[in-house]
Amino acid sequence: MLAVFDLDGTLLDSDSTALWLWDRARRSLPRLLATLLVSPVAIPMVIAPRTRRTGASILLWIATVGLDERGLQDSCAAFASRFQAGALPLRWRRQGVQTLEGHFARGDEVVVVTAAPTVLAQALITPLGRPIVVLGTSLKRQAGGWVADVHCRHQRKCQALAEAGHGPRWAYAYTDSLDDLPLLRGADAPMIVGCGKAAKRRLGRARLPNGRAMAW
User: Fold this and answer.
1) Among 47, 71, 179, 191, whose Cα sits 20 to 30 Å from the Cα of 213?
2) How confident is the model at residue 144, as a pLDDT?
3) Largest interatomic CA distance in the chain
4) What are the backbone angles phi and psi of residue 146, rounded to the nearest 5°?
5) Residues in CB range of 211: below 8 A, 6 or more apart
6) If you average pLDDT over residues 83-92, what whole number do you get?
7) Torsion angle of alpha carbons 99, 93, 90, 72, nearest 10°?
8) Count of domains for the chain
9) Do the Cβ atoms of 121 and 114 come closer than 8 Å?
10) CA angle centred on 149, ends 165 and 168, rounded to 5°
């Protein structure tokens, strides 16, 4: 059976991409000033689904301009190392990781599908030491920096799973966000996770007859 997990807010307790971008920005005065200058425009764009990819790309470009592919990989690896060392305000959700481990114990296949850049998500997931397939947002080089190419969110997550050979349906889906409603609808057992009351409210809005709310 296939178990599909979102990353940020589901297995992790915060937004890994936002923390990585801010971590890079604050270490460079020019990047910091540029980030603060564009944030009043870029952040509302990130919040709105239709402009999310563009807004994220603006912040991503500022954080990564000057990095080649190796530099991008090294930056994500360094961020992941600091995360593993507990030096960042980012943690694994204990119950999320326990649920993931339970699927491995039953012999299930596990895929993490996330809007985070694949290169970053892979760096965070690899130290778990499990055969987890990671599907995320692809990046492309543009004007000396990196921007989002194919943004892995909403319906695109289902397309990514199909392109990876997992078909149109899966046994389990875990997410904290109703932006992943297509992912939930494709699951035999859709799970909306989060603090108890919030998860139940999202479950009611999702109107999934076979859905469950899980307090993580």
Assistant:
1) 47
2) 96
3) 51
4) -125, 140
5) 184, 190, 191, 192, 203
6) 96
7) 10
8) 1
9) yes
10) 25
In terms of Cβ atoms closer than 10 Å to its own Cβ (0-12, 13-18, 19+), residue 53 is buried
Q: What is the tens place of the pLDDT at every residue in 192-205?
A: 998 767 777 877 88
**CA separation for the pair 151, 79 (Å, rounded):** 21
Site of tokens 């954080």: 63
Which domain CATH number covers 102?
Answer: 3.40.50.1000
**Nearest Cα residue to 9 out of 204, 208, 195:** 195
DSSP 178: G
Listing DSSP states for 127-140 in one string gives: GG-S--EEEEE-EE
Provide the whole-model pTM: 0.93
Give the 3-state secondary structure of residue 197. Answer: helix
Q: How many C-beta neighbours within 10 Å does residue 57 have? A: 23
Instruction: Supply 63's token pair.
Output: 């954080």
Range of the domain at 186: 2-215
What residues contact 203, with CB distance under 8 A and at least 6 apart? 192, 211, 212, 213
